[in-house]
Amino acid sequence: MSQALDEVKIGGLGASRQRVEDARFIRGRGNYVDDIVLPGMLHMEILRSPLAHARIKSIDTSKAWAIPGVRLVLTGEMAAQRNLAWMPTLSYDTQAVLATDKVRFQGQEVACVVADDPYIARDGVEAIVVEYEPLPPIVNPVQALAPDAPLIRDDKEGQTDNVCYRWEVGDAEATERAFAEADVVSKLKLHYPRSHPSPIECCGSVADYNSATGKLTVYMTTQAPHIIRAAVALVAELPEHMIRIISPDIGGGFGNKVPVYPGYVCSILCSILTGRPVKWIEDKTGNLVSTGFGRDMYLTGEMALRADGKILAVRFHADTDQGAFFSDAQPSKFKVGLLHSAFACYDVPHGHITAQGTYTNKAPGGVAYRCSFRVTEAMFFQERMVQAAADDLGMDQAEFRRINLREDDSFPARTPFGFLVDSGQYAKCLQMGLDAIGYEDFKREQAEARKRGRYLGIGISTMTEPLGAGNSREYDILGIKMFDSAELRVHPTGKAILRTGAKTQGQGHETTWAQIVSHELGIPADDIVVEEGDTDHAPFGMGTYASRSTPVAGAAVSMVSRKIRAKARKLAAHLLEVSEEDVEWELGRFYVRGAQSRGVTIQECAMAAYTNMPDGMEPGLENNAYYDPPNLTWPFACYIATVEIDPETGVWDVLRLVAVDDCGVRINPMVVEGQITGGLTEAYAMSNMQFQTYDAEGNIVGGNYMDYLLPTAWETPGFELHEVVTPCPHHPIGAKGVGECAAVGGPAAFVNAVMNAIGHTGVRNIDMPLLPDRVWDAIRTGKDISGAPPFRNA
Amino acid sequence: MEERRITVTVNGEPRTVEIEPRLLLAHLLRQGLGLTGTHIGCDTTNCGACTVLYDGRPVKSCTMLAVQADGHEVTTVEGLGTPSELDPVQEGFTTEHGLQCGFCTPGMMMAAKALITENPNPTEEDVRWGLSGNLCRCTGYQNIVKAVLWAAEKQRAASAAASTDVTV
Amino acid sequence: MYPSRFRYEAPRSLGEAFALLAEHGDEAKVLAGGQSLIPLVKLRFAAPAMLVDINGIPELAYHREDADGSLRIGALCRHADLERSPLLPGNHPTMAAAAPLVADPIVRTRGTLVGSLCHADPQGDWASVMLALNGEIIAQGPNGRRTIPAVDFVVGPFQNALHPGEIAVEARVPAARGTVSGSYLKLERRVGDFATAGVAVAIESVGGQVIRAGIGLTGVGAGNIKAVEAEQSLVGYTLDPDVIARAAELAAGAARPKTDHRGSAEYKRHVVATFVRRALSGYRAPVAA
Questions:
Q1: Disulfide-capable partner of C221 in A555, B110, C163, C256 (CB 3.0 to 4.6 Å)?
Q2: FAD-binding PCMH-type domain location, by residue (chain C) (predicted)?
Q3: Complex ipTM above 0.90?
């Protein structure tokens, strides 16, 4: 009779295990970067440019130096002496660390002051006098591409215009032929506004250069500590083994904490120059005006349709506003990230995409905000296009999707842009969502309400997106391939420590990784401690972003556990005195085939690894695994929102939001659901209130929490969650990425619902966020509403 | 530099410190007293990560001067519960998965504590309204609301049990 | 996030406070709830040389209704005290509607009505309420007290009518006659946001006929606006749809909004008209409009 352990009881796969990291967080005992105090530590504050585009005529730091307690005033000129005024970006451009020649966006780093405490450092910043000669600012691609536009990147040799890249994918000719055969061509144009990930914790670092040993230790808010070590080695020209990056508890990342920022570099340089630890803690304004944003893309496209609703082809063009430096933190070999994952869930035979990036006088970098590098724009455009097409055909939006979604038996399927979509039950998910929301009933209610002057709307968003960068063929950072890693050490008593190259920022790795080990080895999850983020301890990995942890590091955890189990099997055979072939595994123990009661536990095997190994076997029960995934993972989601608009004010409220997520096998359902409700809230935020824009002078609007609005518990609707499980065919435990799905697919559900509610007006598009005045204006005028900057201001 | 000697009762313990008047209460707690559970998440009094109880009422400690706490009582997250026993709010947050990155959590819990102390039997709407001065980016609030309702119920059960003890 | 240096005193009585203000003149600024002043100081948008903290003067922490029905709000009465006050819902519906819509719940435990009036932020909520209710501010200095009508209290953005050395010790809402109704409607995109547009309406009527009307507007001008013509258009009439529509139109005409990231001028004007109409029609907003 089986003596296998009950997997859920030991905290294995499928257990909604309470999170182990909570124990410290709920007691206020987390260890975030601002909590770190080192002996002799100094504090650094940054002076930022008030202007969007200006030549620096002079910088006078004498008054700052004169303040008691000020230890160092660092300018670009001083950084240049160390060859550190500029640094390479992850997109093979350069970015100013401290401005020397010009400032190129409002909020750019100009100088920094190091002092005994941050109050004095701020006094020092205030005492620096900079003389600027203003230059004309550029705040959108149209201005950037104008023939007489000032050249923003005059620092770059050979750069004669403000174009940053051009890119295309697909088959233009085949697509053109398909359009020629179309019964209906549906068109759409929109701007996906600039948004900021805005974790509540801002960026920061404590750099500690030990001049005696030559070792540099940097505590920093990074989602990818190992890559940072490589980057610091390159930028600061320090030997990599003398650099230790420690990513402590991180107060949210959402993609904001992937890039290398000037503040980090300055804190390192200041530590080297002062010989003391230097702490830099960014303020919220600094975070919002200078660090990695997301989106800011202009999309124009069309869809070729047969009268019966079949999509024949799509083509579209994207203009991306990159800001002053091309510093996208994205690891794909595609200049515009994974934009070409658009329409992957639909059976679209032909497609063609072109893209062009431009420099502007706006904050640079980032681009991945809770998404895999432009998939958010891709899926939003896709789902807005789908709704427009259904409307143009006079077809029900659900029916249009039913006709075009890939069928269950069509996998694996190659998209016209080259992706291999490998699994899914799309029709089932859609139907589950429609049933949950009561689709037909709602449409009746909507028609009734319309007669009484009420504006109800329903919006659907269905999408699959590629998560888990990468595979090493197409994804790398600084040439380093996108794998990830895990190292597992099982101690003599059967307890274990697991380390990975990922870095949790709220995703709960300390809880969920242990569950994978538990699933593979039958060691109770409570007996496994998980550590990440210290490059001196953890194996090299590429970090946590783009929903890649479970697809890649999670897979590595499985694989290393299996290596351990393989060795344990040999130990079991030795202990049971049978040949290895006669040993069977059930959760937590090996037994002799045909004699199930004769067995040894994994813990007994662990002890034997140190005390009683067979002749010729290396002692110990430790191993590591590096995992290079064969493909991305393809979760699918169906989000359906219902809304009511107050036509007099344009204010709209969410009535219900139904989410059906198929992210494959769920390791910890509670944690997965937390990821989904979090993502849905960001989706709601982007559709309703959250955006950054710039006025004609290049002043940022949305540079603090008074202007950059994040929803509170009050505005945020409740969410109804459902699941379908289609295991990933190539992931060791069948899991797929999930963290970003709701933030990627969600916005279109809300926007489609509002557009559906005002369908009778003929308005085709209102750019996000759907501010009350925009909605009111659209209803009143019957015209599309653009939200592109420059933003109107009195 | 003009320094002041103040005495603040923090988590029940009187603490005497010399400070500059310009020092914010949040910085006194974090740097001066080493109570780093109180976090700072914005510059504009919006995020609420720094929420503490000041004479029992929730305040944003980034928007008070430390010197104003002279002679007053401040309770921080470190003062919730005891080493051996969690406060119902803490228990609720972990049971209902009301936190992810943990950064907003101390402020959120202090606001929640004040809320259920004042209103022991809140509705979901009461909780959403009462926590609307605190921002969270990870959870989407749904589980935070559940956590607070859980804590309120636990607290009601505890006080019902206590009053039964008295009457019996 | 780190204020400049300043000196700080916490007087225990009004007398001490006046002495400090007299001694330090223009350099000194009064600190009450601090929920506007401290953010400005943190961002170094304001750098007073001295703060006189009046929180230690317990006699300023009150709000009460006088025998004649007028409401007195002391300088240390917090927004939250008003939000929870049993005095407001019956006799002071406009006040009751506004109290929960000021800032956010945590800020409300500390911020004060009088301090908010003194701060004179053009987007402040309470000033509109005071304009609608014909409120007054009691200023006290070493030489005694004077009463400043709300309509005269704000002299410009972030500028009030206090003389150097004076402290606003109380706000007063005069007693209403007849049947009282009113509301404060605020269009805000999320809790804690400033109003895109806000409307305070206070109506006193006898036998269905309006005997006094007050309308104050938030966020639609260089300061809060008292829509005098709209108010006058209501007096002597019953609130039928035509009368309401006329008042709404006049109020919208009194607004001087600017286009910004909260909305276009045209939109804000429209919201004013809509909210005046709704408030006069007895529209009851949900707890957050």
A1: C256
A2: 1-178
A3: yes
